[in-house]
């Protein structure tokens, strides 16, 4: 449980950094993102999920 909470904390830090460092640039990205077709967003999301799962599997397998 401690590891899970640490991971959530790291995700929050990484997600928040761009907004804290460059909010105007992030606003522009969000506007572009809102105009992107849902099909492409789904592909990007699934690719991210699969990449994350593969990374977790590789790290867990090696240790």
Compact description:
The protein is an all-alpha fold and 63 residues long. The protein has helices at residues 2-21, 23-34, 38-62.
Helix fraction by DSSP (H/I, runs of at least 4): over 70%
**Tally of strands:** 0
SS field, number of helical segments: 3
* Sequence of secondary-structure elements: HHH
Distance between the termini: 19 Å
Looking at this protein, list some descriptive labels.
about 90% helix; mainly alpha
Question: Would you give an account of this structure?
Answer:
This protein is mostly helical. It has a domain at 23-63. 90% of the residues lie in helices and 0% in strands. The protein contains three helices and no strands. The protein has helices spanning 2-21, 23-34, 38-62. α1 packs across α2 (23-34). It starts with a helix and ends with a helix. The mean pLDDT is 93.
Topology:
Blueprint (H helix, E strand, L loop, with lengths): L1 H20 L1 H12 L3 H25 L1
Helix pairs in contact: 1-2
């Amino acid at each position: 449980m401690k590891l899970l909470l640490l991971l959530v904390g790291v995700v929050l830090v990484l997600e928040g950094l761009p907004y804290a460092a460059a909010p105007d640039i992030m606003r522009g990205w969000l506007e572009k993102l809102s105009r992107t077709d849902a099909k492409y967003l789904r592909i990007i999301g699934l690719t991210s999920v699969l990449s994350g799962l593969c990374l977790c599997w590789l790290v867990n397998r090696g240790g």
